[in-house]
Each structure stands twice: as structure tokens, then as C-alpha cells.
Design brief:
The chain is mainly alpha-helical. Helix content is 62%, strand content 2%. It is flat and about 145 Å long.
Length: 756
């Protein structure tokens, strides 16, 4: 029988061996290439381990019947390197589950590593792309602000600021996004409330000049400006901010943030109670001139009347909710009234809590020795008003859920949290628990974010008030600045906070270079945020129109507000540079720096009134710093009239002559030898300005003896000689050669005598 037929028969018979088995009962395990290779190598190694293997007699007979030489086939097989050459090309099926699972495990690990590597690379690429995009957007914003504000002017001035050791961001970051124009008026008309706030700033600077510790009620002035602008703002909430800040600056609260915030929330809650009682007099039923307790009782009557009934879980006595009454008294800040009420109701309260009145008396007297180790259960705190009162008084460990029905509004939640912080020392002593801190509350409010309090974005002032109540002044101002409607108010809230020393501001030396948010973090300040007050004020001042330059200068003087009463050279230098810049752009030097009258007397400028705020102690220092720097800049940029005016104001008369001499010399050298059809060289080459100014200055100096005495003779001679050359050229152009010779002879520059 041929070999092919025998092998085919064997294949068919082997396949029929498993026909009676169901594939559903015994699953087929398919080996991978790696596993097949490993098993094949093991099989080959086993077959050649003992050298040449003996051939089965039956196989020998089968092959011999087909005409195959088995000896030759065995020799060829033995010489083949099966261990290194064997490779399976077809998938093999086997039931070795252990080997299969081991190979699958290894492959899964390899695949996981490869996928993790690819995921890491993709994430790195995404983060790098986002970072590069952010850097590009920041660069774009910086470039557009530069181009839009300065229109390509004055890089030298910016370099001067940088060389003075001052960060570039306040002066070089443009005018920000402040839009002070009235959208309802025709043309670029400033909003009316801008002038109202500017009046307060002017009064503040006047007071700062008059005294090192100015006695001026900034908050009252700003509150009046806001109330007068209520029609424009269409919001009464912003006016409440000044009352809140007044509590922070009150000596009674001693600048304790939690105490000031609680006092404000208690005050507003009293107003709420009075408003509810007045709105529903029939339901309140408090009588003609109600006492505090009657008002509280009337308020609770209205509240429970809205529900249709008094909740059954409240502890009542003679139809009065005792714990609700006491909680409302404490919520209003009536601590002594609460203690008196508790003493009057002591017999009733004792049935519910025998030690409460003693605890309350010790708490109100702020006795450090009070302890409250009473067990608190759900049954004992079924009345939510009782639970809420226990929580703020440190009477046991009360869960938040127990008082959830009472603490429902944002104001109630903040008051209860801040009250615990305010009395943290006494509550910790009473409960034995760690003290609650303002920092933990601040971190929680920042974690919540504005979306938690105002998910629809309809009331941005709510989250702003939350930040203010928690003492996050820098975050609050920065958040309000992002709302175009209240940007002006945000700036003046920051000014008030800076005036009272409540704002965390970076110094001029450590000021970061930022072109986006005004909020910056300080690594060396315990992680507390800082507000770039200087950059904000500069942006606001530069947004004011040219007609309000007086106001712009007054706002820039606020750059030294955080250092009032201290010596901060960097902040003073920054203020000087900012004022110099705006004066250079608007060029009204006579009004702000002074002027020389026709009789030679000097008229003081507006800015000289505020020299102490600029860190300048004398007129000489004023001339040396601001006036001379402006004069140097005008000279470098070819503004001759301004240069002469400013150097005269600084009494640098010889410098004026040197500048005029240089201008005359340069123009004569450049254009003096050219031909022109005009009769006057000044008309042909723009020399008339320099010539006229030079002649007027020399004549003016000659008539003032006090100036003539200090002039450098060589500078005067140089200017006169150059002017004579101008006359010579003019005569030569007109054809008056004899007169021209007289002019050149007068200069004694050329030997024209007969003895040469």
C-alpha cells in the first residue's frame, strides 16, 4: 500500500477516535506559538536524550512494505538538529490546562505592561500639549495687552523699571479687562459711579497726607457711593459688603474674622426677624412695643404657621417651643437674653437636661473649666433646635444630621460653623474634642467652589459673600473681578481691605510675573493666597479716560497704601514709576509737576502735595527722581519742548543748554551742507523749532540773574556759536555773502584776518 494512503488512513482513524465525545462537554484548549515551541523542544529533547532511539518493529515493517529504507531514514533523522530547527506551523490542540493557563498568565502580564506604557505615553503627550497650549495662550494675552495698551511705545522705560529691581508684571501687563464706560450712553462716557468712588479715594489720599494714621471712614464713604449707584448696579446685596467689612474692622471684634462674621450674620438675622414680624403682624401677634422674647416668639409663630402646625417632635411648654426659642435668641446674638430666659425656665429645662443651665452659664461667662460629657442619643436630640443649640454651645458631640432641619440656608450654615470657630477654645474645653479652626473651614469652602452655592450662576454675589465671611478676602476679590458687572466694586473692596491691613499683598520685590488672574500663591506664606493689588490698581488707573488723569494719579498713589506707616522702598519706587508712565503718556506736566511763571516764580504742581506718599522727603529728591527721569526719557525720544520744560522744572539749566547744543550740532552736521530753494535752513530741515527754542532759552536765562550765575560759560558759548552758524547758513542761502562772512568771522572758527 502506498505511503500516502497509509498516512491518510491513519489520520481518518485517529479522528474517528473522538467522534463519540461531545465538544460541549470537553472544551478544546488551543495552544499558543510560545507554548507549542516549548512543548516541542521538550519532546525532541526527550527523544534524543539517550542517543539514537530504537525503531518500533511494527513501524519498521510498515515502512519497509512501502519501499522505504528505514536504516537510511534513521541516520538522516539522527543527523538533523531538531532542538534548534523545530517550528510548528499549524495550531495544535491539547488538554494540558495547566500549561495553557501558565502561558496565558505570562501573556496577560506582558500585555498589561505594554498597555500601561502606551497609556502613560499618551497621557504625557496630552499633558504636554495642554501645557504648551496654555503657555501659548498666556503669551498671546501678554502680547495683545502690550500692543493694545502701549501701541509699541517705550520698551526703554520698561527696562528701566526692571533694572530698578521691580517686577515687570504690574507695569507691563496692559490695562487688564476693566471697562469703565457707560454702555447706555453715546460715545465713551464713563459710568457715573466711577466718579463717586473716585471722590472717596481723593479724600482718602488727602487724609493720608495729613496724618500717618489717617482718621477717615473709608467704609462709610464707599457704602454711600454704592447706595447712590444702586440704580446702575440693580443689586442691593453688594451694599451689604461694607457692613460686613465694618465688623472686621470694629475694635469690639478685635479683627477676629470668625467673631466679626458671626456678628454680621447675627445682625442680619435680627433684621430678618424684624422684617418677618412686621410683614405678618397678625400671625406674629407681638403687641405694640414688643420685647426681644416677644419678637422671637412672634417670629416662631409665623414660621410654624407657614407649616400649618407646630412639629410634634419639638419640646413644648405652654404652647411655646422652648429649644426653638433659645436657639433663635442665640442665633440673633442675644447671649444675655438667652441666659436670662434659661434661668427663668430652669425648672422645665431641667426635666430635659439637668446640667444645661449650668453649662450655659459657664459658657456665657467663658469659664474655661466647664465640661460636657453627657451622652447624646438620637432620642435625646429629637428636637432639631435643641441639637443645633447643643452644637454651637459645645454641649456633647452632636452630628450634623441632627440639626439639618434647622440649619437650612447658607447663612445659617456659615453662622453655626463660624460660631464653633469663634468659641473653639471653650467648646474644645467642654467636649474634649480638637479645636475647630478657621483654616479648615476655608479649605472646605474653596473645595465646594461657586457651583455648590450657585449651580445656575444666577447669583455670583452669594459665593463672594461666603468667601468674605470665611476670611478669604483675596479669593473673594479675585472672584468678583471675574464678573464684569461688579469689577469696579471689587477694586474698591480691595482698596478698603488694604487700607485696614486685611489684604495679603506680595511685596514689590517678590511680586510674581502674572498676566492672568490677580490671585497668586505664596510658597513662603503657609499656602495662603495673595492678591496682586499693585497690578490691579495700575490696570484700573490706566482704564480711566484722559479727562480723569487726576483720579488716575490718586489711584496710583494707593500703591503705597499697604506700606502706610512703614518704609518699603520697592513699593514707593513702583508707585513713582507708574505715575511717571501715565504722566509721560498724557503730557500735562505743568498741572502735576509745576510750572515756571513769567516772573520767574515756580508754581507747585498737584503731585507735590503727595510727596510723603511717594516716599519722597524733599523737593530736590522730587526733581532728581520723577522730573529728571521724565526729562531723560523725553530727551531720548526727541521730545524737545518737553525736555526743556522738565529740565527747567528740575533746575538743570546747564543740561538744557547741553541738550540744545547737541540738537543744533546734529542737525547742522546732517543737513547744513545740502542745497535747498528755501531761504531759511530751519524751514528746509525742521531746524526752526530747535533754533527758536534755543534763542528763547538763552534770552530767558540771560534775564534771570539767579540762573545766569550757575550757567556753564562753555555751554553758553557753544549754543551761541551754533546759532551764529545757523545765521551764516541762512545768509548764504539768501545770497547775502558779505553778511555771511561777518557771521562766520564772529564765530572765530576760521582764520579770515590778513596776517594769516
Amino acid at each position: 500500500m502506498p505511503l500516502t494512503q497509509s498516512l491518510s488512513t491513519l489520520l481518518e482513524e485517529s479522528q474517528r477516535l473522538t467522534t463519540h465525545l461531545s465538544l460541549g462537554e470537553i472544551p478544546t484548549v488551543q495552544r499558543g506559538i510560545d507554548l507549542l515551541e516549548s512543548e516541542s523542544r521538550k519532546l525532541v529533547a526527550k527523544s534524543v536524550r539517550n542517543g539514537r532511539a530504537a525503531l518500533d518493529p511494527r513501524a519498521h515493517a510498515l515502512l519497509a512494505s512501502s519501499g522505504i529504507d528505514t536504516d537510511e531514514l534513521t541516520d538522516s533523522h539522527a543527523s538533523a538538529a531538531l532542538l534548534s530547527a523545530f517550528e510548528m506551523l499549524q495550531p495544535a490542540y491539547d488538554a494540558n490546562v495547566e500549561s495553557y493557563l501558565g502561558q496565558q498568565q505570562e501573556q496577560s502580564i506582558v500585555n498589561a505592561i505594554e498597555e500601561s506604557e502606551l497609556s502613560t505615553l499618551d497621557e504625557f503627550d496630552r499633558n504636554m500639549t495642554a501645557h504648551m497650549q496654555q503657555m501659548w495662550e498666556d503669551s498671546q494675552r501678554r502680547l495683545f495687552e502690550e500692543l493694545g495698551q502701549y501701541q509699541g511705545a517705550d520698551m526703554q522705560f520698561a527696562n528701566a523699571v526692571e533694572s530698578a529691581g521691580i517686577a515687570m508684571s504690574p507695569l507691563a501687563a496692559g490695562s487688564g479687562s476693566f471697562d469703565l464706560t457707560d454702555s447706555q450712553a453715546h460715545g465713551r462716557v464713563t459710568q457715573p459711579r466711577v466718579e463717586r468712588y473716585a471722590q472717596v479715594v481723593r479724600k482718602l489720599n488727602d487724609a493720608r497726607v495729613a496724618a500717618a494714621r489717617p482718621q477717615v471712614d473709608v467704609l462709610a464713604g464707599l457704602e454711600k457711593a454704592t447706595l447712590d449707584s444702586s440704580t446702575e448696579l440693580k443689586s442691593k446685596q453688594i451694599g451689604q459688603v461694607w457692613k460686613l467689612l465694618a465688623h472686621y474692622t470694629s475694635p469690639k471684634e478685635s479683627r477676629n474674622i470668625a467673631a466679626g462674621a458671626c456678628a454680621y450674620l447675627e445682625e442680619t438675622f435680627v433684621e430678618h426677624v424684624d422684617r418677618i414680624v412686621a410683614q405678618y403682624p397678625h400671625d406674629a401677634n407681638v403687641g405694640g412695643i414688643p420685647s426681644t422674647n416677644r419678637k422671637v416668639r412672634g417670629y416662631l409663630n409665623v414660621q410654624f404657621g407657614r407649616l400649618g402646625r407646630v412639629p410634634a417632635f419639638l419640646e413644648m411648654f405652654n404652647d411655646e417651643a422652648i429649644w426653638a426659642h433659645m436657639y433663635t435668641l442665640y442665633r440673633c446674638g442675644f447671649k444675655q437674653e438667652l441666659l436670662k430666659y434659661a434661668l427663668d425656665m430652669e425648672d422645665i429645662i431641667t426635666d430635659s437636661d439637668p446640667g444645661f443651665v449650668a453649662h450655659l452659664k459657664g459658657f456665657c461667662d467663658q469659664a474655661a473649666a466647664i465640661r460636657s460629657d453627657i451622652p447624646v442619643t438620637a432620642a435625646s436630640l429629637e428636637d432639631p433646635y435643641k441639637a443645633a443649640l447643643y452644637k454651637v454651645l459645645g454641649r456633647g458631640n452632636v452630628s450634623k444630621k441632627a440639626a439639618a432641619e434647622v440649619v437650612q440656608t447658607t447663612e445659617d450654615y456659615l453662622w453655626s460653623s463660624l460660631a464653633v470657630v469663634r468659641d473653639a477654645e471653650h467648646i474644645a474645653a467642654a467636649t474634649g474634642h480638637p479645636r475647630s479652626t478657621l483654616e479648615s473651614l476655608q479649605a472646605l469652602m474653596l473645595k465646594y467652589g461657586p457651583a455648590h452655592f450657585d449651580p445656575n450662576g444666577n447669583n455670583p454675589l452669594l459665593y463672594f459673600r461666603v468667601l468674605l465671611l470665611c476670611g478669604l478676602f483675596e479669593n473673594a476679590v479675585d472672584f468678583l473681578l471675574q464678573n464684569d458687572r461688579f469689577q469696579i466694586e471689587a477694586v474698591h473692596i480691595a482698596i478698603a481691605l488694604a487700607f485696614y491691613g486685611l489684604l495679603n499683598i506680595p511685596s514689590a520685590e517678590t511680586m510674581p510675573c502674572s498676566f492672568g488672574s490677580y490671585l497668586v500663591a505664596a510658597d513662603n506664606n503657609g499656602g495662603r493666597a495673595m492678591l496682586d493689588f499693585s497690578r490691579m490698581v495700575i490696570h484700573y488707573a490706566r482704564a480711566l479716560p484722559e479727562t480723569a488723569t487726576d483720579d488716575a494719579v490718586n489711584y496710583l498713589l494707593l500703591l503705597t497704601l499697604p506700606t502706610q506707616g512703614t518704609c518699603d522702598a520697592g513699593q514707593h519706587s513702583l508707585c513713582q514709576q507708574a505715575i511717571e508712565r501715565i504722566l509721560y503718556e498724557r503730557t500735562d506736566y505743568a498741572r502735576y509737576l509745576g510750572d515756571i511763571q513769567s516772573d520767574g516764580t515756580r508754581k507747585r504742581g498737584m503731585l507735590e502735595r503727595f510727596l510723603p506718599l511717594l516716599g519722597i522727603s524733599s523737593n530736590e529728591q522730587f526733581a532728581q527722581t520723577i522730573i529728571c527721569r521724565l526729562a531723560d526719557r523725553s530727551r531720548d525720544e526727541g521730545r524737545l519742548a518737553d525736555t526743556v520744560l522738565l529740565y527747567n522744572l528740575a533746575e538743570r539749566y546747564n543740561t538744557v543748554l547741553n541738550v540744545l547744543g547737541k540738537q543744533l550740532g546734529e542737525l547742522l552736521y546732517t543737513h547744513g551742507g545740502s542745497n535747498s530753494n528755501t531761504d531759511n535752513i530751519g524751514d528746509a530741515y525742521g531746524l526752526d523749532d530747535v533754533e527758536g527754542v534755543a534763542r528763547a532759552v538763552l534770552e530767558h536765562y540771560k534775564q534771570r540773574e539767579h540762573i545766569a550765575r550757575v550757567l556753564d560759560d562753555r555751554a553758553v558759548t557753544t549754543c551761541n556759536t551754533l546759532l551764529t552758524i545757523v545765521d551764516f547758513l541762512n545768509c548764504h542761502r539768501r545770497g547775502a555773502y558779505e553778511e555771511a562772512l561777518e557771521m562766520i568771522e564772529r564765530t572765530q572758527l576760521l582764520p579770515l584776518g590778513g596776517d594769516v
